[in-house]
Structures are given as C-alpha cells and as structure tokens.
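Page 47, continued from p. 46.
Same chain as before, 287 aa.
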Amino acid sequence: MSLTKVERVAVIGAGTMGSGIAQVSATSGFHTTLIDISAEALTRAKQSIQQSVEKLFSKGKIDETARQNALEGIVSGTDLALAAEADLIIEAVTENKPLKLKLFAELDALAKPSALLASNTSSISITSLAAATKRPSQVIGMHFMNPVPLMPLVELVRGLDTSAETVAVALEVCRAMGKTALEANDSPGFISNRILMPMINEAIFCLMEGVGTAEAIDGVMKLGMNHPMGPLALADFIGLDVCLAILEVLHSELGEDKYRPCPLLRKMVAAGYYGRKTGRGFYTYTT
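Result:
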C-alpha cells in the first residue's frame, strides 16, 4: 500500500498532550481535527490552545498565519468518525493498554487504507498496538514531549513490523512541525522513560526514606547536576498517575526490581495527589 503525503492530521484525546499535538499540527499548516469523548475536555483544550498560541505569537515565535490556523482551523468533536479522512491519526489518550488496544482496532476499521496510525504512548509496546490492526506496517510511536509547543523532541518508535516508508513519512511530519525526531526501537519505556522514570522513582524513595526534603532533593539535581527541573517537580508536572503507569509497565515487562514503583508514589496516586493537574503532589499548586 502506497502511503499518501500527510495533509490531514487527526488527534485522539484532548488532554494536555493531545491539545498540544493538535496545536503544533495546526500551526504547522496541517488540516487538524481534535477528537475526545468529552465535550468538556474539548472546551478546555480550545482554551488552552488559545492561551498558548497567543503567548507564542506575542513573543514572535509564530506568525499570524500559524496563529489563525490554530485559533480557527482546528475542527473538534466527539465522534471518532471525524478521523476517517485523516492521513495520519495520532492517539493521545490516557496511558491504559486495554483502552489503546480497543481504540487502535476501531481506528483501523474507520481509517482510509493509506492512513498511518501513531501513538503518543510513553511506554506501551507499539508492536502490541499494531497487532490490534490489519495494518501493522503503518503503525508507529510518535512520543511528543510536554509541553508539546515548546519541547523540540519527538521519540519515534518502530514496532516489529513498522515499515521504512512509515518511518520516513513520520520523520517528514516531525520536520514539518519543527521537531527533531530521534528513533528508538520498541522496548518498554523506549529511551526517554527507560532512563527518566528510574531517576524519578529513586528520588521518591529518597523522600520516603528521609534522605532529604523535596526541596533538597530537587535542589541537588538542579544545582549539582544542572537539571532544569528537579525530579520531584518534574513528576508533578508529568502527573504522578502517569509516572506510576509507566513504572508499572517497566516493572512488569522488564521484570527487574529497580523499576518497582515506590510505595509513596502508589499511596499518593491512591489519594488522588497527581501533581500540578490536581493542585497537589510533592508540592502544592494554585490555579
């Protein structure tokens, strides 16, 4: 099957990552559709995109055409069928494997034959998601970084059957979006979270064991290791629920104790302390 040039992009999931991907897609000139089962999530995404775009425009980071594309050109709705004509569909729903598998099977059934299916997953196997479709060669991981409009990296992940043509098309899309794409093979956590999550987890163990306060732990990594953000503040930014989900995948798939989620992380997630998005994590936040 010959893959078409990507002109239309559909993003599934209007959370932080999905709205950011839709924004970058639109400002880069792609006809963009944002889909979510929640109308409220779409409303919040529209507000978030507007704020982000106006800020970037005021700083001269995007021009008037890109601004108008994002403010007026994004089609949104709750019907998955809106993705039927997309050349590239990017899944950005919550990090839940059964949900993603179900969604990929549904997308495979409604997407046109030449369409690429991509996942923004942080850790789940691209090969397993591809196996839920009848087009495994056209499935790829496109792991954007948060916040999407500002972070330059996209981690491109090849599944076992991902074709060279699919990779080439995804690379071209990344370039068009102004992103740097770096390739990783399909292994739990890929490159980014295989390295990042154990560091965050160890920082949480240090806090739980009283090795240092949250401020001290983050301060050591910022001032001593030149990290722009400490690991505990970064966990709050990512979402503690997301960190736990990724660590559970790493622990389950790789079977090593070094990936075992810290009990304090489990306890905080059970309490609903997810970080910035709930106003409380290792630090407290005001909206």
